[in-house]
């Protein structure tokens, strides 16, 4: 009877230990992604994040801001192209009306 009771107590403890080690392994994998190499402590990381969030518009990861800027530039280029096409179409239309009327 005692062996059975010990097994019941040991099984949840082993499961908890397994879950804990899995969490630790995930933290080890995720930590390098979050903290840039030049930052050695969590306090330095926090200061770095605060500084970058203020300068990059509340973006916690430095690489993301570059992608957002690139996307903005692409949108601006597309908008310029669209406007240019509209203006050219308007000019052609005006020329056609002048020819028809003149």
Give a structural overview.
The chain has a domain at 1-34. The protein has helices at 2-34, 42-55, 62-101. It contains three helices and no strands. The N and C termini lie far apart (110 Å). By secondary structure, the protein is mainly α. The protein is 85% helix and 0% strand. 0% of the residues are buried. The longest helix has 40 residues, at 62-101.
Please outline what is shown here.
With 102 residues, this protein is mainly alpha-helical. It is 85% helix and 0% strand. It has a domain at 1-34.
Q: How many H/I helical runs?
A: 3
Poorly predicted ranges: none
Structural class: mainly alpha
What is the C-alpha radius of gyration, as a whole number of Å?
31 Å
The average pLDDT score comes to 72
Number of strands: 0
Please bin the fraction of helical residues: over 70%
Spatial separation of the terminal alpha carbons: 110 Å
Largest sheet composition:
none
Characterize the overall form.
elongated
Q: What is the strand content? A: under 5%
Instruction: Output the helix-strand order.
Output: HHH
Task: Please outline the helices and strands.
Blueprint (H helix, E strand, L loop, with lengths): L1 H33 L7 H14 L6 H40 L1
Please tag this protein with its features:
single chain; 102 residues
């Amino acid at each position: 009877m005692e062996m059975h009771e010990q097994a019941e107590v040991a099984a949840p403890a082993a499961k908890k230990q397994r879950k804990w080690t899995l969490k630790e392994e995930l933290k080890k994998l995720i930590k390098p992604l979050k903290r840039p190499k030049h930052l050695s402590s969590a306090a330095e990381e926090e200061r770095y994040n605060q500084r970058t969030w203020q300068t990059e518009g509340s973006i916690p990861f430095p690489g993301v801001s570059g992608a957002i800027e690139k996307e903005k530039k692409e949108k601006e280029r597309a908008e310029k192209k669209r406007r240019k096409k509209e203006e050219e179409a308007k000019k052609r239309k005006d020329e056609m009306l002048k020819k028809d009327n003149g």
